[in-house]
Write a structure and sequence with these properties.
This protein is of the alpha+beta class and 674 residues long.
Length: 674
């Protein structure tokens, strides 16, 4: 008898094996979706870092441009408030004698030489040019400047003419107007001209990386046109010559910024390239600062990671398909092999996702004082795979500066059964390399209340912290750069003013004196005319080194006040101490022995020093009027300046302490001393 065979028995398993390729394909799709999701999250984090870095650079440059404008407007305001200068202009207008004109020319020349202006001109209320540093002038100011002059005289306030181009100058310039009055009668104004190429545009050229496409643009909307105020990196147009129609729907970042958009923008720039941009308004002006970089350059790293992820998906897909074929060929292993293969590949996906995100998992058993960690966590801490990390080993790896704080945080989280969020440094066990970690953990109980456990994730954030620190260093360097004189590497006028305000408040609180030395290189103009400007710059650098070396105390501030003039701030010094320091500085400069054929009788470079010391009065604390302290600090500069001119009047190469006779000497000083 032959055994009976069911017609459906053997066929069912065979048909079931044909489902294996479909299962493999679905597994590949699921794996690809998971890897793609993980990559998208990483790309989003990377995008946020790039956008934040660009925004930080834009804000730093906006601050530099705003400080530049504010400093220039402050200088114009100081000139407008100078009653002695206005009185000199009034005398010259009433009696245009050569001696009266010479006083004004010397003052205009000082604005050019000491404050870095390209030109300084005296104009009448109608905008007619009257006088310049080199003599009388003819002609009129450009029409936009005359409009600003009328507004400045009407409001009795300094005004800026903005960035302009005119046939009178071969460069883009920024103009300022300082109005002058004889009582309530307008005398005219001083028209100050600044070459934007040497003072403003360099503030836009500093970037923390050597990018090939990054640039910052100053743009201004004028009606239905956009005017590019700064030169373009990728075009040869001169600044202020390129005008483009303003089209709000064009999608260009500059057009969006002109329409009111701020922050991060995406679009195509004037080259038609897709860019990432950040736009901000410059305070106190109609200018917009747009910082941009090509998206291809900004996100090239993210694109590389995308290709790696896609390659990983393809490799895993081929591996799964190969496994499906093997399972289909070896029917005897079909069920056991299918389960093992799916489990193996799921574990590989999980490990790949952990490595891509640099995230590991751990569980801490408080009873055993042992960390049980995932493979990625072992890699982060630099310990062999499948190793349990003891509490003592973990404590030894934590950086000494972070150890006490981290033990406190971990102890508080365990005691309060609350969450733990912390960042700290370790010295990795495998190579003793310092790494930054971020830990997120939660408290819980396992196997009863006596077995406390904490589970969480640990991530290596070293690269992110390094990027943040590099950006902070760049910000600090940029902040310091605007307070350093580029020629002498001393503090500049801005840094000196800030330090005087700080030290005055401290002297007011402590009841201590504050002294100021005003120093001028004797007959420096004659030195420049005889030896040339290059030798003059070297002379100023040598004098600066001598002053810095001979000052002595750590709290003293040596600054370049302008041109050949220096200032030394001496906190806590009375007149006698300040005079002793001044004499030491004067002798230090003489000791340099720099040849000066038209200088003093010894034929070397010398300096004259004016000394002033003030004791802040206690009443300034109780008045509640900040202006009182400001006026007294200005008095310190005025007295030191008067003493300096008294020293020059008495023959130069000497130190003079301020007294009533110094004011008289300053008032009667001849033009050669001013």
């Amino acid at each position: 008898m032959q055994p009976s065979i069911s017609p459906n028995g053997p066929a069912a398993p065979s048909r079931a094996w044909w489902l294996l390729p479909l299962v493999a394909v679905l597994g590949c799709l699921a794996l690809g979706w998971g890897v793609r999701t993980a990559w998208q999250e990483r790309e989003q984090r990377y995008r946020h870092v790039i956008e934040g870095s660009l925004a930080a650079i834009n804000q730093l440059q906006v601050g530099s441009v705003a400080a530049w404008r504010q400093r220039r407007m402050g200088e114009a305001a100081s000139l407008a408030d100078d009653r002695l200068f206005a009185a000199a202009v009034s005398r010259w207008r009433r009696a245009p004698a050569p001696a009266n004109a010479a006083v004004l020319r010397e003052r205009l020349r000082g604005l050019v030489e000491h404050l870095g202006y390209t030109g300084a001109y005296l104009v009448d209320p109608q905008g007619q040019l009257l006088l310049g540093p080199d003599g009388s002038l003819q002609g009129q100011m450009p029409a936009p400047a005359r409009e600003s002059l009328r507004a400045s005289l009407a409001l009795a306030q300094p005004a800026g003419t903005g960035l302009q181009r005119d046939a009178s100058f071969a460069f883009p310039y920024f103009g300022l107007l300082a109005p002058l009055y004889d009582g309530s009668q307008p005398l005219g104004a001083v028209w100050l001209v600044v070459d934007a190429r040497t003072t403003l545009y360099p503030l836009l050229a500093t970037w923390p990386s050597s990018s090939h496409t990054a640039e910052s643009l100053l743009v201004e909307r004028q009606g239905d046109f956009l005017v590019f105020l700064s030169p373009l990196r990728h075009r040869s147009d001169e600044a202020l010559t390129l005008r483009m129609p303003w089209r709000p729907d064009s999608g260009e970042p500059v057009a969006l910024a002109a329409g009111g958009s701020r922050g991060t923008l995406y679009g195509r720039d004037y080259r038609g390239k897709q860019v990432l941009a950040t736009a901000s308004a410059v305070p106190g002006s109609n200018w917009l600062l747009v910082s941009k970089i090509d998206t291809d350059e900004a996100f090239i790293e993210a694109q590389r990671r995308e290709w790696l992820a896609l390659g990983l998906v393809a490799s895993l897909a081929l591996l799964l398909l190969g496994g499906a074929v093997v399972l289909w060929r070896w029917r005897a292993w079909r069920r056991e092999r299918t389960l093992k293969d799916r489990l193996e590949h799921n574990m590989r996906w999980l490990e790949t996702a952990q490595r891509a995100a640099s995230v590991g998992y751990f569980a801490y058993d408080a009873g055993k004082r042992v960390f049980t960690m995932s493979a990625m966590a072992n890699v982060i801490f630099g310990v062999p795979a499948d190793t349990e990390l003891t509490l003592r080993q973990w404590i030894d790896m934590v950086h000494a500066d972070d150890r006490e704080e981290m033990l406190q945080k971990h102890g508080d989280a365990m005691a309060q059964r609350g969450p733990l969020r912390a960042q700290y440094r370790i010295l990795r066990a495998s190579d003793r390399q310092m790494r930054w970690l971020e830990v997120r953990a939660e408290y819980g109980d396992a196997n009863g209340p006596e077995r406390s456990r904490m589970t969480g994730t640990v991530q290596d954030i070293t690269e992110r912290r390094q990027a943040e620190e590099q950006l902070e260093r760049y910000r600090a360097a940029l902040e310091a750069q605007i307070r350093i004189d580029p020629l002498t590497q001393l503090a500049n006028r801005l840094a000196l003013d800030e330090q005087v305000a700080f030290e005055w408040e401290r002297a007011l609180r402590g009841g201590t004196p504050l002294a100021l030395l005003m120093i001028d290189v004797d007959r420096f103009k004659a030195f420049n005319d005889h030896y040339g400007h290059v030798a003059g710059d070297r002379c100023l650098q040598s004098v600066a080194v001598a002053l810095s070396t001979a000052t002595g105390r750590a709290g003293d501030v040596v600054a370049r006040y302008g041109g050949e003039e220096f200032a030394v701030l001496l906190p806590g010094a009375g007149e006698d101490q300040a005079w002793a320091v001044a004499e030491r500085l004067r002798e230090a400069v003489r000791a340099l022995g720099i040849e000066h054929a038209r200088g003093c009788e010894d034929g070397i470079v010398t300096i004259s020093v004016g000394v002033a010391s003030l004791q802040p009065a206690g009443r300034e604390v109780t008045t509640g009027a900040p202006r009182v302290g400001v006026d007294m600090a200005h008095a310190l500069f005025r007295q030191a300046d008067a003493a300096l001119y008294r020293a020059k009047q008495c023959g130069r190469d000497q130190t003079m302490v301020y007294g009533p006779e110094c004011d008289i000497a300053l008032h009667d000083a001849p033009d050669s001393l001013l």
